[in-house]
## 1
Amino acid sequence: MTAFSAGSERASGQAWRELAPNYERARAREDSLDRRVEWPAQRDVIGDVTGLSVLDLGCGNGAKVAELVDDGAAAGVGVDISGNFIEPRPGTELVQGDLSDLGRLPGLEDRRFDRVPFLQSFGYAKDPVHALRSARSMLTEDGFIVLTGTQPIRYARERAEKNGTTLGEEYFTQGTYTYATGWNQNIALTKNTYTMSDLLNTFSAAGLWIDRALEPHLLEETARRYRTSRSG
Ligand SMILES: C[S@@+](CC[C@H](N)C(=O)[O-])C[C@H]1O[C@@H](n2cnc3c(N)ncnc32)[C@H](O)[C@@H]1O
């Protein structure tokens, strides 16, 4: 197994350059969690984008921001460290770069955005408060950030099963967690553990407040229909 640390910029970038094709293949599956649960919930929160500008941070191959442009967004910029992008369509710009360092992304210094999604990518920010403050500084007056991430109980449950401990113990354990990704078992990612209050305090520290929170999950009927729930 190759272990890459998400805490190290270069190692995480390298991991994602290798993982990107596996991730996108898994995500494109008809029964992927992204298609069945995550993207519909994310799309709902992003809302009507007609005439708006969108900055998708950690955009993967850029297909989601391209879809927002198809849905009427006036401009869509996607930033991802992997550089594994679809062919950009008119109105969509895809930039290889680090979401931890938005100030250094070429051509974005003076731009403002109405929607700034971090979709399953915020966990890779080197300094989460700094990343949120930078994103906040790029918002229009009525703009907002949409942040989605893995419910920390999922990782706590995995660690409890692996370590023979309890969910409660693992939920409150501080430190890092290294796991083989479901997209390529030969590549491991390391993440900082966090609780829901850690996450909420990160928003407060960045001067943000929460307007709406959702906990989407796989419905019984969907799980039965697709038999398995797959990550991606
Ligand atoms: C779980 S995927 C989510 C992709 C996409 N947002 C989606 O919802 O399908 C995480 C993404 O974050 C990107 N990523 C990881 N670290 C990053 C960094 N430091 N800067 C920019 N993108 C990063 C990865 O390359 C990957 O595309």
## 2
Amino acid sequence: MNAFVARSLEEIRFWSRIMKEHSLFLKLGFRCEDTQLIQEANAFYALFEQIEAKAHAYQANTAPETIRQFNIEVYTAASHIWVFKRKVLGLILSCKLPGANNFPLLVDHTSREANYFRNRLAQLNNGQLEPLADAIIDENVFFLKIMADHAKFIGHLLDPSERKLVEQSREFSHDFDQLLWQAQDLSSMRPQSQTRPLLGQFLDQNRVSVASLRDFKKTARDLINACRIKSIIHPLLADHVYREAERFLAIIDMFENSLKGNAPLNQVAWH
Ligand SMILES: [Fe+2]
Ligand SMILES: [Fe+2]
């Protein structure tokens, strides 16, 4: 099985669904009169739905050249949705959409995810994946910020009367802000910080918090689905952030296995 084909399809299957859902969340946050923006969001929904279907239709034995072309096509789509999200962020921040219902941080957050997806496709196509030690730090810096944001979104979209859950979200937000600072410290101490024991401890510590946030999101999702808590969280958003935590955990596990398997720190791995 071709690792390039397998990794590309796996990445696109996960992130195209995420991009499709972002289009829906953006659309739901616009006002009724924002018909142009709603149409643009619908077009992105359809585009990523189509990409997702295509990614599932391709098999692991598809010719690498076909996948290389597909990656370019998806890269373009991810670039376009990134531009759209940054445009929406600009409109919100210059008060051109008063009363619209998406937080600026949420729009920025979804644009960062689009940018991550786009970079990933470029790396896969150029064969320029990072050495293991750099990948461990960079992926964690990216995802810890994503997790810290999620905790803040949940805390702000729960009904204020859900005091216990709001409090728990605030604790997660604080925990992940701390972990993010630690990750940035480790990053600034590069390359001296890139020892096997330090990277191992870094992954251990992050995994504990991500697993606990993942469980919290799962509970929140189930409570929302059962209509047991008061919030303005879309059930699909609850599931969406849960899946992103699961993905981060899978990435941490993969890195831990590479470290335990004594994979060379300075060599590129198909992560
Ligand atoms: Fe997302
Ligand atoms: Fe996210």
